[in-house]
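note to self — DONT lose this again. spent like an hour looking for the file last time. sequence + predicted structure for the chain T wanted, 379 res
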Amino acid sequence: MKKLFLPIVLLLCCSLDAQLIPCRVGKTWGYCDTGQIVRIRTEYDFADFFTDGLAFVQKDSSYHGINTKGEIITPALKHYGVFSDGLCPIQLKNGKCYYIRSDGKVAIDMDFSAAENFSEGLAVVSVGKKLGIINIRGEWVRKPDFDTSSVYFRSGFLLGLSKGRYFYIRKDGRELILPDTVRPAGLFSEGLAPVYVVKTGYASGHPEKASYLEFIDTSGKIALSHFVHDSFDYSEYIMLEKEFTDGKALIKAKNQIGWDYHFIDKKGRFSPLYSSAKHLGDSLFLGIIGYYMSEFRILDSNYYVAGQFQQKPLQIGEFGDGLLPFANKEGMWGYVNSNCRVIIKPQYNAAFRFKNGYAYVVKNGLQGVIDTKGREYFR
């Protein structure tokens, strides 16, 4: 369960204002246009992307919001979040949190000790040591009474925790009532949530309770409970690895040397068997076959092989804008397309997901921005 705080993460914004792109000259950051002409002088320690006319920059261990003229329009900040529904959480140097609009003005100020980004029109906030939920008007949907939670609402639900008990919170702030034999096992996603259902069986004539992975829908009813593949019932053996994404959930079952992985769809149909697997984004998936001489395959939604790495990568990121970051055997990062053709050759110490045509990379120990053609906005 993720703790509630405002980390400074390298997230690309949902829109780019007038194509002002964070650029670095030496060790200082500013903003340039697509022709690499500097529009806001390079004087910052870091620069994030613009959203609706506001961007966050770092200078002298503080963050500041600036407008497209380069004018500072917020107080000095300790942390900042991401704009959603026109609102962004920020944290002042003294620890106080509130929400601002894209003009830098205060939008919601209710003496929060922590505040998360909005999702589905709602946000998790903290007052003292308890968490609650507000809407975009700053009204309480649920007053602070739970201990921790997932960060975002998904499919209309938040996963909460209070006094050691997990439960689902609906968008109206009320709890989704489940039978005592059903307990949450993960987040709602694409209308379904994994749960463990306690059932009683018999061993040697004695009753014995066991938990089985199943999925509920948004009404709390069991929607997926049978997991039969190749005439074998896996229901007793499978565990959840990852909730539904792009129509597939990832499950695993123990074998003699590790785990077997399968993707399943919302009807419980199994993918082929993989020794490891993950969601890649853009409706593509990674299937790894073999533990030692492994084959790394990019799969489409029908599990057909779109591409296969010729050399085993050390790490793989997530697809964005049709490109997938990967690290080669020397540990250098580059990008391939869905056919595993190298588009940007491995040359970076780190590389992150593309969004809106740009991605952050690290080269020679310094961070910078590149576009999907590999053009570098740093020197």
